[in-house]
Amino acid sequence: MEVLFFQKPSGCIVAPLLALDEVVSLLKGQVWNLGLSWSHSFCESSLRIYAQESHYPASAHKSDAPFLKQDASATSYVVSFLSRMHTKKEYILQNSTTPTKFILVGLSDEPHLQSIFFSSFLGIYVITLSGNLLIILLTLADPTLHTPMYFFLRNLAFLEICFTSVTIPKMLDNLYSGNKSISFMGCALQTYFSFFLGGTECFLLASMAYDRYVAICKPLHYPVLMGQRVYASLALASWLNGFFMSFVLTSMVFRMPFCGSNVINHFFCDIPPLLKLACGNISMTEIAVFVVAVLYVTLPFILILISYSGIIVAILKISSSEGRKKTFSTCSSHLIVVTLFFGSS
C-alpha cells in the first residue's frame, strides 16, 4: 500500500495515501480546532507527498472522496496524533519558565579549596591584564612597531583582556562570597561575549597568518598587499564575524524554554551545559548550534593551514639553514599561539 508522510521537525505521521486537497483541509480543520496556528504548526511547504503518480496522482480532488471516507481509521489516526501533540505542547508550556537566575556549580564545592582557587585565578587575571596592557602600550609607543603584525597583536592583546574579564571576575566573586548565582541576563551576556570574543580571535589569528604569508612569500609586494586599509579591514571583518556568530548562537539558545533545574554544571555560562537545561525537542537547535560553531572554527583554521603551507614551501626553498631559521622565527610565536588556541578548542 502506498503511504502518505506528514513531514514535521518533531517526526512524521504515516497513514494510507489520501488526496492532497482532502489532507490539507483535514489538517487545517483539526489544527484550528486545537487552537493552534496553521502557519507555525503545519506549514504546507513541509507537507511532503510520496506517491507514484501513475497509480494515484496527488492532484486528485473530489472524485477521490469515497476513498477518504472509507479510510476513517487514517482520519482518526491523524486527529489522535494532533491531539497528543497539542497535549504535549501544553505540558511543555506549563512546565517551562524563564528562570530569573542560574546557579554556577564552579570548579569545586570543597570549602578549603575555594581560597586556593581564588588566589590562583586572581594572580592569573592580574598577570593577564598587566601583560596584555603592556603589549598594547609598548607597541603604540614605539613608531618602528607600527606595522600590520603589531597592529594585529594589539587587537589580540585587547581581545584577551576582554576575554578574561568576561568570566574570571564573576568566578572570583563566586569563590570569595560563596554566592554562585548569576542572573538570566548576566548569563546571556556572558555567553554572548564569550563566543563573540572567541570567534573574533579565530579570525584574527587567520589574518595574522595571512600577514606572515605575504611577508615571507611576497616580500616585495608586502607594502601593497598589507597596506593600512587592508589590515584595518581584516581586523574589522574579524570583529564583525565574531559579533554576528555570537548573536546567532546566543539567540538560538536563550529562546528555548527552560524547565526543571537551573543549575549549570560549569564555572561560567556556556552553551553545552545550558542546552542540558532546556526542555522540549531541542535536537534542531543542537544541530544548528553545532554547525555554526564548527564552521566558525573550521574556516579560519583552514585559512591558517593554507597560509602556513605556502610559508613552509617558501622556507624550504631557502638554501642556507641560517636563512631558514631566521625566516621561521618571524612566525614561530604566532604558530605557538595558533597551536594552543585551536588545540584547546
From TrEMBL:
It is a multi-pass membrane protein. Coiled coil: none annotated. GO terms for cellular component: plasma membrane. Keywords: Cell membrane, G-protein coupled receptor, Membrane, Olfaction, Receptor, Sensory transduction, Transducer, Transmembrane, Transmembrane helix. Residues 131-345 form the G-protein coupled receptors family 1 profile domain. InterPro entries: GPCR_Rhodpsn, GPCR_Rhodpsn_7TM, Olfact_rcpt. The chain crosses the membrane at residues 116-140, 152-172, 192-210, 230-254, 287-316. GO terms for molecular function: G protein-coupled receptor activity; olfactory receptor activity. It is found in: Cell membrane. CDD domains: 7tmA_OR10A-like. PANTHER family: OLFACTORY RECEPTOR (PTHR26453). Belongs to the G-protein coupled receptor 1 family. This is Olfactory receptor.
